[in-house]
Amino acid sequence: LQGLALVSLLQTCLNHNLRPTTPDAAPPHAKIAADIVACIFLHYQQHSVMTVALPVAVKLLHKGNSELSRSISSYLSLAAIHSAPLLAQHTHTIVDSVIAGNYSLARILPGLYSESQDPLHRHVMTLVSLLPRCHNTSDCQPLLQLFSLVAAHNPALLENSLPQLLECLSHHTTVAATLKVVLQLARWRPALLTPYLAKFKAAVETQTEARTLGLQVVLVLGKVSSDSAKIALDYTAEHLPSVDKTGLPDVLSEVASVVSEHQDSVSEELLLAVRACESAAAHSTLMRIQGSNSNTNSANSNNIKHSNSGGITIVTISSNTDVVPAANHTNTAPFSTNNSMDTNKLEKSELKFSGYDCSKVPD
Asked: What's the predicted TM-score (pTM) here?
């Protein structure tokens, strides 16, 4: 009941001018509203209080008082923990406040995404355009986290904003969060990211904390073609020793995925680099690489059949002709596998076929 009474009192404050008259002087009702909000959100875990408090509290975001707006933002972050569905009903109002310059409020947007995607989708391009304006990189992090969610669910919305997103690769505090967005986009349409491969390699080489994600992006882009796969795998082999142990399974999983599509791109350097990792993930990757190579070799030999007749191994190769040249035979005449032959008429000392010495055939 006390919480509900405070909400009613806060509502009356909305009827008064809350704009500061001077930079250092806040109107009396603004101070009262700030104190009431602090008391109300002591009950942020109580659903009944938040149900009536949130619709009133979000209105304070647009009363022209930036200090009050920042204060409200902190309390709304608490409400988002336990009352995200309730807060999601006001996503449009919250997004408008972020766009207006209340960047600290962006921290609650990722938590609202699962509850209210449409308002965020409608404003995603505008939100991306805020990245260069965020002087505090900590304000960029929640926005990039939001864009990662968007990229996973509706990546086409970020296609036109890609150049602005990639600008965040130049800041070490945002490079990892940016690469998470890029990785989602690369899985969706790798050709879209291929022109920026040099940027991703630069992130791998200069940002230790982003090496795992950077190599994953390079590998995903490597699936575009066999040539791209070889470049990506060779590049990964070069940097694999410096990948931290926690990120190694993710990189090796991507390696195996590329190899499964482009078996002919595997180099000895890659195999040596994977073996040197000495981990369960590396062993699993080696098994998958070897399995892919075995499948290729098996496919190449599917047309070769062996049979044994009268102690002589006969190899039949499927082709447009039934004639197979005799191996290591001094006589260049063809050897037919379809015609019956009297082995006693053959020069046993001269014929060796498929590794079998026919001189040992009993008369």
From this structure: 0.76
In the chain, the N- to C-terminal Cα span, in Å, equals 111
Q: How many CB atoms lie within 10 A of CB 245?
A: 9
- Write out the two tokens for 104: 């600290």
State which residues form the domain around 2. Answer: 1-112
Q: What is the DSSP string of 25-84?
A: B--HHHHHHHHHHHHHGGGTT-HHHHHHHHHHHGGGGGSS-HHHHHHHHHHHHHHHHH-H
Which of these, 336, 335, 330, lies nearest to 350 by C-alpha position? 330
Which residue, of 132, 153, 188, is where some domain finishes? 188
Specify whether 21 is located in the same domain as 34: yes
Cβ-Cβ contacts under 8 Å for 46 (sequence gap 6 or more): 3
* Rg, Å, the chain Cα set: 34
Q: What is the DSSP string of 215-282?
A: HHHHHHHGGG-HHHHHHHHHHHHHHGGGS-TTTHHHHHHHHHHHHHH-GGG--HHHHHHHHTT-SHHH
- 314 membership: H or E segment, kind and range: strand 312-317
Q: Is 85 inside any structural domain?
A: yes
138: part of which helix (H) or strand (E)?
Answer: helix 137-153
pLDDT tens digits, 289-336: 766 655 544 444 444 444 444 444 444 444 443 444 444 444 444 434
The answer to whether residues 284 and 312 belong to one domain is no
What is the number of other CB atoms lying within 10 angstroms of the CB of residue 122? 12
177: in domain: yes
